[in-house]
């Protein structure tokens, strides 16, 4: 998939970073490696906590630094020599991901990367095409499943054990970039806090598959 197509799908998803008075990202430098690291949080509260920690270590940051929201696609456009970027996932969603994997009989040793959630029971249809919505919060997926069930006046099988699946955002994007055809070609990323049954444009129809 073309990089532009991937970035377009990520455009509506916010992440949070630290910025100085010059509107530049605050980078963390490794003492031993000499490399700089830019951190992007998926939860604003985590970014606020990080800022307070940084202010404690560097008093010069106290008056000039702040937390800023950045569209996720802009992060992937950043290419700075000697600078690596790392995502800090929402800890509550990491716990949700571990629980989903446990329910599916998978490893419970932890979760590496940013978790995203999907369900085989939820499909978006637009112009005779089918799309798979990918959520950054398990709660948003569950709300959308409930609303889809009510709208169709049927018992939605979405809450059967194992019906909700969890994947790693970084791995999805890597696969989309490297493969000419991918099982992720039809994904639509849903920003945190969105219920697809009420926030999507009218031309897209939400359905719950039985």
From TrEMBL:
Pfam families: Tic22. GO terms for cellular component: chloroplast. One of its GO terms (biological process) is protein transport. It is found in: Plastid, Chloroplast. Its main location: plastid. InterPro entries: Tic22-like (IPR007378). The keyword Transcription regulation does not apply. Keywords: Chloroplast, Plastid. This is Tic 22-like protein. It comes from Thalictrum thalictroides.
């Amino acid at each position: 998939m073309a990089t532009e197509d991937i970035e377009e799908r990520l455009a509506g998803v916010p992440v949070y970073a630290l910025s100085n008075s010059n509107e530049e990202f605050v980078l963390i430098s490794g003492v031993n490696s000499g490399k700089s690291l830019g951190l992007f949080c998926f939860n604003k509260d985590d970014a606020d906590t990080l800022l307070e920690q940084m202010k404690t270590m560097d008093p010069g940051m106290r008056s000039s630094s702040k937390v800023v929201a950045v569209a996720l696609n802009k992060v992937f456009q950043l290419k700075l020599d000697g600078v690596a970027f790392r995502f800090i996932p929402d800890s509550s969603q990491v716990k949700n991901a571990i629980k989903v994997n446990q329910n599916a009989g998978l490893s419970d040793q932890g979760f590496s990367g940013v978790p995203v959630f999907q369900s085989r029971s939820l499909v978006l249809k637009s112009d005779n095409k089918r799309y798979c919505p990918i959520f950054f919060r398990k709660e948003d997926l569950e709300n959308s499943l409930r609303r889809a069930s009510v709208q169709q006046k049927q018992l939605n099988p979405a809450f059967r054990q194992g019906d909700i699946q969890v994947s790693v955002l970084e791995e999805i994007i890597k696969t989309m970039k490297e493969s000419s055809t991918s099982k992720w070609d039809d994904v639509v990323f849903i920003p945190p806090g969105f219920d697809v049954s009420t926030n999507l444009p009218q031309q897209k129809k939400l359905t719950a598959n039985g």
